[in-house]
Amino acid sequence: MWAATLDLPDVNSFNSLVTSQSSVFYDRTGKIELFNLHQEVKRTEISFDDISVFSKNATLSIEDAEFYQHKGIKPTAIIRAIFANVTSLGYAQGGSTITQQVVKNSLLTKNKSITRKLKEWILAVKIERVLSKDEIFSIYLNDAPFGGNIYGIEEASRTFFSVHAHELSLAQAAYLAALPQAPTYYSPYGNHKEALSTRKNLVLSKMLEKKYITQEEYAAAKATKVTFNPLAQNGLTAPHFIFFIRDYLENKYGAETIDQSGFKITTTLNATLQLKAEEIVKKYALANKEKFDAENAGLIAVDPKTGQILAMVGSRNYFDKEIDGNVNVTLAKRQPGSSFKPFVYATLFKKGYTSETVLFDVKTEFSTYCSPEGKPLTPNANCYSPSNYDNKFRGPVTLREALAQSLNVPAVKVLYLAGLDNSLQTAKDSGITTLTDKDRFGLTLVLGGGEVTLLELTNAYGVFANDGVRNPYTGILKVEDGSGNIKEEYEQKENTVMDSGITREISDILSDNEARSPTFGERSALYFPGRQVAVKTGTTNNYKDAWVVGYTPSFVSGAWAGNNNNRSMQKKVAGQVVAPLWHEFMEYALSTLPQEQFKQPPLLDKGTLPPALQGEWRGGEGYIIDKKTGTLATETTPFSNKGIKVTQNVHSILYWITKNDPLNGTRPVNPEKDPQFILWETAVTKWAGMNGYPSFPSISSSWLIPPSQNTSLITPLTGQTISLSGFNENIIYPFSHALTFTVTPNDFEKVSLYINNSLIGFLTSTPFYFSVSPRDIPGVLREQNTLKVVGVLNGVQKEITYTLQINLNQ
Predict the structure, then answer these.
(1) How far is CA 800 from the centre of its chain?
(2) Which of 43, 383, 444, 718 has CB 3.0 to 4.6 Å from 449, enough for a Cys bridge?
(3) Strands, E, within 481-528: which ranges?
(4) Does residue 401 contact residue 515 with C-beta atoms inside 8 Å?
(5) Percent above pLDDT 90 for the chain
(6) What is the largest CA-CA distance in the chain?
(7) What is the mean pLDDT of residues 686-704?
(8) What is the separation of C-alpha 481 from the centre of its chain, rounded to a whole number of angstroms?
(9) Residues 10-29: pLDDT tens digits?
């Protein structure tokens, strides 16, 4: 018989139990030991009678409800396991009974094979003939893994709750029964406490189902708040990182394999850098607790050229119970504030917008359910008009200035121009996986309205550092089994996800100390004399999170500060709260790295770009000149001598540029059809009027008309009609609202607007769309006014006159 050929251990003697081999974690050199899994294994054996009946019943309910009925194996489970293993070509399914688990833990090696599985089934049946059910159950409970170096129900009871196994409450017993299936994942000291609580409740529900407890006991235990003792320090270096790696390994190879098969794990961690990072995080977190009521912090360092994690600090102290220090904040989902902005700006640059493109940082209403003045147009409408960190507005700013200084109003406009879907795709391509619920996001996404992890955000910045090439993050260099066989080894998995010209532009902006100085100062914590470092901060509106992520071409680090319980800090920006921490760590890291410079972004040919993309905000109808002579440029004009002049005509960018095709050089035919146009336009024209810039060209401008253009006009035009769309002389216009209308037909060469015979401005190209706020021209207005529009074609004119009624008090 085939079973007779199997080499089976003697079930009559447990003196020949297989000795577990300890798995050991090393730093990236393979020489510095970070953690020995079986270092000082803790196990206290007790009699079966000294174990709480709650523990016995909880374990039976979740692990093997039919334990006292079967003969060591469950044939239906075996059939199911065989079918699953054959169809999947693997050996993952076991259908293990408690007896089988005793066999696995005590008599057999952990290698997965059909032969080993057959031995397990045979030995389980044999053991049932040699030992009683209570004896088998006792062995299991005394040998079960509960995480780290804790084995057996008695040791777990003492470690977690400071009680003996026979003193466990129902709720405590349910928690312990929940652990052995995946002790690292479900660890009460890890990042999956909610999952542990869910599994504890599953244990209780199964106990109720099997009538081990009453409905009242179930309800009471489910509602009981159980407190775990703080985890004692036990020679564990880089604990957050070690548990991060162990969780990955257990998911891939199984907890039992990692626990007992003698793996040698060479990680990516730089031990020296890690110790320095832990020291700095602890120092600043304790200081921030007193200064800013921000008691915790975390830090990540990654090599962008490989994705290898060099340092991971998940809290100021893993063993600090006061702040739940065991929780790894680098893996926690938090709102990133403005540190998310570079991904949105990069998305806009993909469309052809440039870093010199100007947007207006002025008070702007963005909700289309509200008026430009921020008044709801429908019941319960939520208006949205963000401000900057200092509650100041700066008027026209380039995208370079807006990103470097982290201005919010331009950033919201950038997201609208870039598109929400496009921006989310850029983030996803860069490795951010948490922004999946698009319906939750609107224009607030660019200000950090979604949740990300510090690990993913920091690694995503590596795309900017690495010329558009993404390397997935990893903490593993090599994994070897107890026999020295390589189970896995680091392999480069790079993928180009962004054009290098765009990433170089982002890096150039984020490393531009001059551009950010108006906000942060010339000698801020973001500046490193003699080194080129790109960096971005982020602070959430509710001051619950402060971030900073920065990089050189070969090193990226990110830091977070705040409170684990989501309590708000004092109202200070990230540049004050977390930047000093990040700066000290980055300065140390840079001292070990060679001097590097970012590659320069490509130069733009200004002769091919619309004025709005070249930094011109006073108008969008431009012509190229020779800067030396002031005359129109020709084909022979050197590239370096070319400049642009525009006819002065201040509008929002939506007036000048086709949002999704900015390079086509033509103005939108009907810009008012864009839902944001009136909101942006009203804010911009108001600013222009208050600062001496008419929203239409001024007749006194010395460079109003290109040098080649003829300015002579004026004889009556016959046979031509002129009309206004959007103007109603039968209503009274509020003084504070914009007056907007379109003049037709489109074949006029020039259309001028007069109020009370005062020239307000004129347009020389279609669409002839006017938008002017009465409050910006107070000197010419009365309650009853004459509005005249004059169209000119072929040197002759046609005019139309209306009554304009203004409420000067509104």
Answers:
(1) 56
(2) 444
(3) 486-489, 495-496
(4) yes
(5) 47
(6) 119
(7) 54
(8) 36
(9) 555 554 444 456 788 989 99
Confidence grade of residue 685 (pLDDT, cut at 50, 70, 90)? confident
Q: What is the dihedral of CA 276, 281, 287, 291, to 10 degrees?
A: 140
For tokens 């669409």, what's the residue?
A: 767
DSSP secondary structure letter of residue 145: B
Residue 645's pLDDT band (cuts 50, 70, 90): low
What pLDDT is attached to residue 606?
66
- Cβ-based neighbours of 76, under 8 Å, separated by 6 or more: 95
How many other CB atoms are there within 10 angstroms of residue 637's CB atom? Answer: 19
Q: Answer yes or no: are the C-beta atoms of 678 and 436 closer than 8 Å.
A: no
290 class by beta-carbon count within 10 Å (0-12 exposed, 13-18 middle, 19+ buried) = exposed
How many angstroms separate the CA atoms of 218 and 207, rounded? 8
In sequence order, which residues have a C-beta less than 8 Å from that of residue 15 and are 6 or more positions away? Answer: none
Quote the mean pLDDT of the chain: 84
Q: Enumerate helices (H) and strands (E) in the chain, giving the number of each.
A: 23, 26
Closest CA to 14 of 117, 193, 142: 142
Radius of gyration of the CA atoms of the chain, in A = 35
Residues constituting the chain: 810
Residue 76 confidence (pLDDT): 66
d(Cα 400, Cα 517) in Å, to the nearest integer? 12
- Helix, strand, coil % in the chain, rounded to nearest 5: 40, 20, 45
Highest mean pLDDT among 289-293, 734-738, 776-780: 289-293
608 vs 773: CA distance, rounded Å: 33
Are 374 and 487 in contact by the 8 Å Cβ rule? The answer is no
CB of 275 closer than 8 Å to CB of 310:
no
| Identity of residue 3 | A
Global pTM value: 0.70
Tokens encoding 77: 């489970």
Question: Are the C-beta atoms of residues 799 and 722 closer than 8 Å to each other?
Answer: yes
CB 146 within 8 A of CB 155: yes
Confidence of residue 192 (pLDDT cuts 50, 70, 90): confident
- Would you give the DSSP letter of residue 362? S
Residue 589: CA count within 13 A, CB half-sphere: 29
Q: Contact 414/344 with Cβ under 8 angstroms?
A: yes
Cα separation of 420 and 800, whole Å? 43
What is the DSSP secondary-structure string of 684-698?
HHHHHHHTT--SS--
Residue 252 has a pLDDT of 92
d(CA 324, CA 349): 42
How far apart are the two ends of the chain, measured CA to CA in Å?
Answer: 101
Is 648:619 a contact under the CB 8 Å cutoff?
Answer: yes
The tally of CA atoms less than 13 A away on the side-chain side of residue 129 is: 8
pLDDT computed for residue 306 by the predictor: 97
The amino acid at residue 306 is T
pLDDT grade, residue 359 (50/70/90)?
Answer: very high
* 565: its two tokens: 């319980």
pLDDT score at 1:
40
Q: Which of 319, 320, 273 is nearest to 299 (CA)?
A: 273
Q: Each residue of 112-152: pLDDT tens digit?
A: 555 566 777 778 788 888 888 898 899 889 888 888 778 89
What is the three-state SS of 310-337? EEEECCCCCCCHHHCCCCCHHHCCECCH
How many other C-beta atoms are found inside a 10 Å radius of the C-beta of residue 635?
5
Domains of the chain: residue spans and CATH: 2-22+36-260 (1.10.3810.10), 606-690 (no CATH), 723-807 (2.60.40.10)
Q: Which residues contact 45 (CB under 8 A, 6 or more apart)?
A: 142, 152, 154
The number of CA neighbours under 13 Å toward the Cβ of 619 is 23
Q: Among 145-149, 404-408, 692-696, which is the least confidently predicted range?
A: 692-696
Q: Quote the tokens at residue 721.
A: 């009609």
